[in-house]
Amino acid sequence: MKALHNLSIRNKFAVIIIPLIVIIIGFDYFQVQHKFTHYKESVRLNKAIILGIEINHVVHELQKERSITAGYLANSGNKFSEEILAQRHTTDSTLNEFYKEIVNPDLAGFMKDHDKDVEHLKDFFDRLLEVRREVNELTIDPSEAIEQFSEINEVALNTVNLLINETPDKEAAQQVHATIYFLKAKERASIERSLGILAYSENVMDSTTKVRFSKLVAAQDSYLDAFLVIADQDSKDFYRSTVKEGEGDLAEVARLRNLIFGQEDLTENAEYWYEIKTKKINAYKEVEDYISNKIHEYTENAAAASSRDLYTFVALDIFIGILALVIMTIIVRNLIGNVKTLESHTKKFMVGDVSDRVDIKTKDEIGQYALTFNEMADEINKSHDALKKQKEHAEYLYENVIKQSEVVFENVEQGIFLLDKEFKISNLYSKAMETIFDNKRIATEMFSNFMRPYIIPRDLEALEMFMRHLFNPDMDEDVVNQLNPIEQVKIYTETSEGINTKYIRVAFSRIERENEIQNIMVTISDETQAVLLKQHMEEAETIKQQETELMLSILKIDPSVLRGFLYNSRKSLRSISESYEKQDGTNFETLLEFTFQTVHNIKGNSVLIGVTLITEKLHTIEESISKLRGRDMSGNDFLTILYEIDSVDKIIADMQDLLLKVADVYRKFPSQGHVVSNILVIDTLERGLNRMSKEVGKDVNFSFSNDKNVVIPDHYTTPFKDIMIQLMRNTLSHGIEAPNSRVKVGKLIRGNISVTLDHNSFDEMVVTYRDDGQGLDLKEIKEKALLKGLVSEMQADSLKDDEIRDLIFHPGFSTSEKADNYSGRGEGMALVKSIIDSKEGSFSISSEEGQFFEMIIKLPLANREKTELA
Amino acid sequence: MTTVLIVDDSSIMRRTIEKNLTGYDLEVIGTVSNGVEALEVVQEKKPDVITLDITMPEMDGITCLEGIMEIHPEAKVMIITALSDKLTGLLALDKGARGFLYKPVSAESLQKAFDKLLSRNV
Amino acid sequence: MYKMERRREEFEATCKLFIDSVSNYFKVLTEVDSEMSIPYLKETEDLKLKDFTGMIRVSGNRKGFVYFSAEKNMLVDLISMFIGIDEPSNEDILDMAGEISNVVAGNVRANLGTNFMISVPVVFEGNPDELQFPSNRSVYVIPIKWKNYEAYVVVGFE
């Protein structure tokens, strides 16, 4: 079924038309065949009748010959001798006609079908010669002769019957039957004539013949009756007008027949019987001919009619067939053509040729459809135009609005996107998002998931809460926005190049439509540059301040002094870390003390030369260490100290850098190098003393005399300064009394420190340091030394004053209980001694209790210079 | 008239808020310094608006807010706090607060916040 | 001065996170407490690491690196303690060092403040030619003792 539906129209037509054509041709074939059969039958019948007539002629002559022969034999050859010869001649001539006819080429086809019948008949005709010979010899009984002739006739008539019977033409069949009946009746009449001749010749009729005779007459009448029943009116009329029973000769025949029936003596002449009877039979013959001719005529007409019929039908058939084919072809081609036209136009239309129109002239449904199609095409064209305009408009919009916003989205520096109610990031987001977050997985991500790697869990939790409130229409947007947890947030993004720190600002704003919060627009700006710049500026400011401070302090200090200080300080600081590294065997306490001493020593120097920054730093370290004293310590505690030491180290390193720059300046102006450096050293010492004295609340004058203009060589500036600083520190802490004490003993409130430079004959630089303080308290020194375990009690008792004085140079000696920036804990004098020793110098001290302390230091000049020169 | 309760442990703050609200169609029916007292007043007087500090002794603002919402859910609570922790602020919104202000508050910001709070019928 | 103070605190907090992470590792997983020895400073070029080292990159307020460097025997001991292999392959030891570094890093990350961020550790054996430390800066070596073995937490910040 489906296959049928899917056939093309052409094939559908074929499916409809081909069976029809087959049916029509089949029907036609049967019609033609029928007509042809009819025609053939008519022709056959016509030919059968022609032959039948010939046979009937023979039969008629044989009937006469039979009667004459019967008369001849009954009269033993005395009568009918002439007639018999004449009759035989006539019979033969009809026989010849018959023989001629059966070889007639017209009958060739017909003869083929009836060959057997005709051959059979010819056999019987051939027996005639034998019968005639026996008649001539008079060796045959007349009845026997009649029998012989009758047998031949019977066969002949049967043959006729066979030939003309069984025609499908009803009317012809009826006439044929009538004729056969009539022929049979005539044959009976003829046999009657023969028997009559026999009876009249012998004047008597035996009973057997008589029975036969009456049977003949009865049969004759029956056949005639049958003939009259089925024969057509015309034949009947002709029969009645020709054979008039009871009139003339026929009445004589009836009288003679009755004589025979009457069993009377048959006195009448046999020839008379023959004559009279023959007249009747001739009348029969006339009728027979009439009927035969009529049938012949009829069949001839029928054949002609059926032939006409056949040819007319065939001609008509061919004509109508061709006509039908032509019409069908036209219609089908038109239909299919139209459909094809429509199809091709539709296709063209579909491909986009909207101006295309269908031109189908027919007024059928397809024509209507084509019109509809054209109308539709017009409509489509119209809407197409409208659409095109709209499309152009849309394109315009796209170009000018969307594209612009896309361009904006591509180029805007802010990260911009929308959040939906599920907190998902919109598909469309500004390109900056990717650069800000170094992340390309943005679209449709949950915003909180997206932010997870960048912010701390607490902020993330807050963000989720915040977004929920943002979408809550009950909440005021401004109120909620005050609680934006990522308003300003620092994020870390990881790229292949490393981790980037960024400062971003995230702003949220509601997008409402029809009083409903549809989306939240999120704007993210990368403020890293700005924040970093600010930080950088702040840091730069701090550094500048530090540097300025450093610079100022450096400028005030003799560079050679400072250089030495910085160098030594770093070395000392490093020694701390080194001692930590080699910690094995030492306990935390020892390390802590070592740290403290080292730091303290540096601090003392820093105070003296006035590097406040470092002094402060070092003091902090001392504080930290003090806090740890006596506590359970862990490695971790040292981390802080280490950090602080490191930071001091860094400051010192920075100062060294600065110093190099300053040194450059000096190098450019070398002429007054030493003098300048001397002045700087003295200035440094003076300022250092001022600072220290203020701190401890003691007023001290500083007097410096250098009458011989001794120049402190560069390599001595630092040792000189270091020594002076330690001495000054001691003076301030232990030498100079508190102001009220000084007043009590009659001293000036202001203490005095004098430093004198000299040059002796040994090419030594002689430095004399003297203060007007209380001098060395030998008792106290001894006690301290005992306390520190520097000497035993026994030793202490036996110590001379000089030896007691020397104790102050012992490392670890300290006379002060209190620690501050400016007092030493005994390290001071030990340091002084070690410096002098390292320079191969010498020293001496003198002191008077309550009066003064003096120290004379001699440092070799030439030696050193020589060594340096060498 | 709309009734207001001010809850803040700082007396200066309480006075500032009260002063800034005068001249408005509001009646300050109480100023209390801690959450416990606040709950008592709320129970008794059912104020329309409550300004609430978060960091307070005895009872913190969030706990107090929960208490207020339990006994007087219609109250419009405005958080006024120096606390810069956003999560706590958001938590307050979760618990039912409808306004939020950071200290120090100016007269202008307070009035604006009140206008907003009262115009929303939630 | 205030700024300096804050910086010191930050530095200490950062170091503490790593030290605590390491000590927590030993405490929880081995039930033998580790002990931090006195730390000291080193120049980058003088630094001598232990046999196996996991390197963790730190960024944020303070940029720099933290190494967890352990002697081979310590790692071997840990391996035998954890998985019962007495003669582990070099690869196993590297894995172990990586594992500790990962846990330490993970711990630190979990306790991460807002101010810094740390990377996934990179593990190596021996002393590489160039260590990744900020230049011109001191490197803090924090020795950690566990049983009789020693490991370093090396901290180098800008």
Report on this model:
- The complex is a heterotrimer of chains A (870), B (122) and C (158).
- By secondary structure, chain A is α+β, with helices and mostly antiparallel strands.
- Helix content of chain A is 69%, strand content 10%.
- In chain A, the strands form two sheets. Chain A has a five-stranded antiparallel β-sheet.
- The two termini of chain A are 127 Å apart.
- With 122 residues, chain B is an alpha/beta fold.
- Chain B has one domain (2-119): Response regulator (Rossmann fold), CATH 3.40.50.
- In chain B, strand 1, helix 1 and strand 2 form a beta-alpha-beta unit.
- Chain C has a single domain, classed as Chemotaxis protein chec.
- Chain C contains three helices and eight strands; from the N terminus they run αββββααββββ.
- In chain C, helix 1 crosses helix 3 (90-110) and helix 2 packs across helix 3 (90-110).
- The longest helix of chain C has 29 residues, at 2-30.
- The A-C interface holds A 456, 490, 492, 494, 498-501, 542, 574, 577-578, 580-581, 583, 588, 591, 616, 634-636, 638-640, 642-647, 649-650 and C 1, 3-4, 8, 11-12, 15-16, 19, 35-42, 57, 59-60, 112-115, 117, 119, 138, 140-143.
